[in-house]
Amino acid sequence: MKSASKAILLFLILTLFIQCKKESETTPKLVSENEINFAKGFTLINYDGYSVVKVLNPWPKSSKTYTYIFKESDGVIPDSLKQYTVVNVPIKTIVVTSTTHIPSLEMLGVEETLIGFPNLNYISSENVRTLIDAKKIKEVGLNNSLNTEVVIDLQPEVIVGYGIDNNNPTLDNIQKNGLKVLLNGDWNEQTPLGKSEWIKFFGALYGKQKEANDIFSKIEKDYLKTVAIAKMAVLKPTILAGDMFEDKWYLPSGSSWGSQLLKDANGNYLWQSTVGTGSLSLSFETVFEKAKEADIWITSGQFKNIEEMSKSNPHYKQFKAFQTKNVYSFAGKKGKTGGILYYELAPNRPDIVLKDIVKILHPELLVGYEPYFFQKLH
């Protein structure tokens, strides 16, 4: 009886040991908590051999969450995660669909992996334009209306798309044909550093998380340093933004990315207190009544000079900022095929944008600095 009891006890201990061993082998080993500090649209958690990326709001008011698994060569994916899109990293070929994705590739030094893009003329980056001229990047359609046949023929390891809403049949069709589509919501972020932090999304795709973290840390540090400098300003100029398009004046809402930059530059943006994260759409009369005496006017980028503005709408001449020639635009800095560099690079480099605006509002604070994006219109 004693020997039987011992055998049973030994069997139970052995069973428990095997069970514990199996659990230790299958339980994911957490390497780091969420790496994202400012962006609200995605999370990035690293495990031993793979990373889990969750894209939370790829378009405004989205209720969907998309989960992607970035698997390293020796990584083992738990069964519970195999239902999601699994990407083997580092990737070697990619198609992206927004110019805002281009700077992340370039800063990480992986722009040569880009093999397709919709409407190549929009790209301003000199490095990427060189690749385009060398026929290394193929035209794949227009914006979200991708040419499915061309994309499938290219066979990229990943297509990084973006959603305006829940309806994107082109991307759905590409995915049904066996290609891997990842949604990127950088454009939907509402803070300057939140937009910029999406470089970590690409860093994870290329096995370059350390490099992405270092790049973003420098941008964050420089941005916050400029915020501190702006706070030293004695005066707080009033700011008018945007201009007329057709019969409406479009300008940033109070909680938007553009509005936040003006606030961080220690400017008095006249619509800072409005609610919303997108654009305001107002009549000319409403804007004129509030902003006719504004000190500074930062336009939307439609115009290259004062003459273009006055031809577009003679009533612009009634604004004080127009009369004193304190009108600024980013329209002058373009790529060789006409793409406006600001739209491509500014969301990724809010540190540069903020310096530009501080120089415009408080020139005495950044002696010797020349704005990179903005120019005074003459």
Protein described:
By secondary structure, the chain is α/β, with parallel strands linked by helices. The chain is globular, with a radius of gyration of 25 Å. Helix 2 (102-107) links the parallel strand 6 and strand 7 (114-117). The longest helix is centred in the first third of the chain and has 25 residues, at 2-26. Helix 7 packs antiparallel against helix 8 and helix 8 (209-230) runs parallel beside helix 14. Mean pLDDT is 91; it is low at 20-25. The chain has helices spanning 2-26, 102-107, 126-133, 148-154, 169-176, 192-196, 199-205, 209-230, 257-264, 284-291, 306-312, 320-323, 341-345, 350-361, and strands at 30-32, 42-47, 50-55, 66-71, 85-88, 94-96, 114-117, 138-139, 141-142, 145-146, 158-161, 181-183, 238-241, 243-245, 248-252, 268-269, 279-282, 296-298, 327-329, 375-376. The strands form five sheets. It has a five-stranded mixed β-sheet with strand order 1-2-3-4-5, covered by helices on one side. It has 14 helices and 20 strands.
